[in-house]
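Protein in question quoted in full.
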Amino acid sequence: MADPSSAPRVINIGLIGCGEVAQVIHIPTLLYMRSHFRITYLCDVSPAALEHYAASIPTTTKSQSPVKTTRDPAELCASPEVDAVLVASSDEYHADHAIAALRQGKHVLVEKPLALCRRDVEAIIRAEEEEIARGGGKGRVMVGYMRRYAAVFEDAVREIGGLDRILYARVRDIIGPNSTFVAQSATFPRKFTDLSAGDVADKNARALEQVRTALEAECGVAVTDESTRMWRVLGGLGSHDLSLMREALGMPERVIGAALGLPVWNVLFKHASGYTISYESGLINVPQFDAHLEVYSADKIVRVQYDTPYVKALPVTLHITENGGDGVLRQTSIRKTYEDPYTLELREFWQFVVEGKEVKTTARDALQDLQLFGMIMQYGNGGR
């Protein structure tokens, strides 16, 4: 018989937000990882969503209480039945919910984007620093850039670091409708429409104020329907790709070209080392997922290829194409694991909470995404 004392500590998770990503990704993954996590509390503005998902979360022992529900994030964060908090609420609430968790001394995993403006990211950083200064040090932030936790991505970063000289790089994310992939995920998510008029009005008002702060006050860019949509899509889709770019290559020096607009956009960055980085992204109706990072040197090309995260266990692959000498083309494809990036990210979060392991996707790291968004929007709206 296995020694119970050798089993890993199970973290009690409070989940704020029961929308699509929670339904398709977070709840199933946490349940798969029940040796490390237990969902004890759910929070959402939809009473119907709370009722539905609370009923779907099983208790694992006779002594375990059924999952609790609340519409009040502060109640969840203060509960002694919650060890750590996963924030998957709407982007407009990420900062408030993360800070509420930190002030209760809880570690928190926040879905990207961490926030919609620099002001709010800086508020999260201050709350984290205040918690550390109090001496407890329990409340820390990890940002959910799951693509950066893919096993072969970390291998690719080492390959890229070993290149003699980078000549060109490309980060691309042109994908079909998420609804297509979600429908094939076998998770059968539901949409709930029982939000109150007050909740809808509050969300809309927050979005308007936060985007206005980001564009006008922080970037000096006029607020229009077009600039607002572009800012939101950079936060939603672009943060995946641009954070990958930052880790693999470092922050670019400046933007030297941009064609912004939906459904497809393109940005050209200049790196301090002299090469250019092309960022191509967009949303089309072809049901495929073309997301990759590709880096070129004279004798080697390193490419990390991603598939949709909504269908579990699709592998992330590393492809190395190189000059084998004497006219020989050598191509290597590496699939390191079928464990998806969300599972690997949650394993890192467990180590962050239980073992105190430092993480790379910190709030300060996320602040650089807002800096990149600002560079893009300033160039694309007449700046140089």
